[in-house]
Q: What sequence folds into this?
């Protein structure tokens, strides 16, 4: 399989032949079916539900999970799948990451064997789409300490009350993993809430400038009753929630790398074609400087993502490893998409030249799964032995 133009050091060659076949199928899907509709869906801020059945045919939702169709795939492969999706459309990669990483990951890590068997196979076939309800109107970076949504047990039922915000897939997901604080013991616990469950209301967040295709929702839970059988049996504290986030934070590094790689490749193609002063601007020293700076950011970020995947596969990845990857790659991405917009000049502020959408989408990736500042403090605590978090 040909390597992407932005993979300057050829990290894709680390995949086995079988893994490259899987990735080739994803790339063909992206180019033939996703790319032609991605911009229109983004502009209209509508989700292309018609593409989900084809998405499902790729059979990639089961990849990270053992026993759904065989051994779990290497993180290196699932990382490159995320990169490939983001390289075409960061919104659709986010949709997939929410469903496959956050929702399925919560059930895989925190559910009982029965719950895993009940929900994961249908989710792997994308017959049921998942969402992840953690962030709240008053709790983003401080959600671990400041979680306000409550759960009260009444016999074999739990009663949930509270609000969630920025819940991707939240308007149409078949099930939402809701994290709430138990009134009895103050512990954070997880619940699988069905979309049509009485007491849960969702409203789409409007007027976004980034990841417009992703259907983010405000969720209000009002005496929402959930069966004990739908409480994630192995979720007993925020430590369990954080295990899910540790997995997916590494995925953001791959998405960020794919996003900046696409912006770079579009800027490079534009520079080769755009003529000023009688020749292509790609031949100007200052333009080459911008392109090389972008390529350096991409190469360093991809190397970090690859090494993190290797640590994850070896069971050696720690919070600070994922945090550093998320912090570094999204910061490099923000710089790279700005440089790409600079190369394209005035044309970089319209959607017609393949840079502006990635420029806008980068702002969301920069913020979610922990801001740069919060991830910096996670790494800082690890390397100094001193916590700088405000309590």
A:
């Amino acid at each position: 399989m040909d390597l992407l133009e932005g993979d300057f050091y050829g990290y894709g060659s680390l995949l086995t032949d079988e893994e490259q076949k899987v990735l080739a199928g994803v790339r063909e899907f992206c180019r033939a079916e996703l790319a032609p509709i991605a911009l229109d869906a983004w502009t209209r801020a509508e989700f292309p539900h018609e593409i989900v059945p084809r998405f499902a045919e790729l059979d990639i939702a089961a990849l990270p999970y053992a026993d759904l169709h065989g051994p779990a795939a290497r993180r290196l492969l699932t990382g490159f799948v995320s990169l490939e999706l983001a390289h075409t459309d960061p919104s659709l990669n986010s949709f997939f990451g929410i469903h496959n990483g956050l929702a399925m990951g919560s059930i895989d890590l925190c559910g009982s064997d029965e719950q895993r068997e009940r929900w994961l196979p249908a989710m792997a076939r994308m017959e049921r789409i998942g969402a992840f309800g953690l962030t709240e109107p008053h709790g983003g970076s401080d959600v671990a300490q400041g979680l306000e949504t409550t759960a009260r047990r009444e016999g074999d039922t739990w009663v949930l009350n509270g609000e969630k915000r920025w819940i991707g897939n939240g308007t149409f997901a078949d099930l939402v993993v809701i994290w709430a604080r138990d009134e009895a013991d103050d512990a954070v616990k997880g619940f699988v809430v069905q979309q049509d469950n009485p007491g849960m209301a969702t409203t789409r967040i409007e007027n976004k400038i980034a990841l417009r295709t992703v259907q983010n929702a405000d969720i209000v839970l009002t005496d929402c009753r959930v069966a004990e059988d739908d409480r994630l049996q192995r979720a007993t504290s925020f430590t369990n929630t954080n295990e899910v986030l540790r997995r997916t934070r590494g995925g953001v590094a791959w998405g960020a790398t794919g996003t900046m790689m696409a912006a770079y490749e579009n800027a490079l193609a534009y520079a080769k074609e755009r003529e000023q002063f009688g020749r292509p601007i790609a031949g100007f020293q200052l333009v080459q400087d911008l392109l090389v700076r972008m390529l350096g950011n991409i190469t360093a970020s991809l190397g970090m993502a690859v090494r993190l995947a290797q640590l994850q596969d070896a069971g050696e990845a720690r919070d600070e490893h994922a945090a550093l990857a998320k912090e570094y790659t999204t910061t490099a991405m923000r710089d790279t998409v700005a440089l790409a917009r600079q190369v394209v000049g005035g044309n970089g502020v319209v959607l017609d030249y393949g840079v502006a959408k990635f420029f806008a989408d980068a702002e969301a990736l920069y913020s979610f799964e922990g801001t740069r500042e919060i991830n910096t403090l996670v790494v800082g605590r690890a390397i100094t032995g001193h916590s700088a978090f405000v309590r």
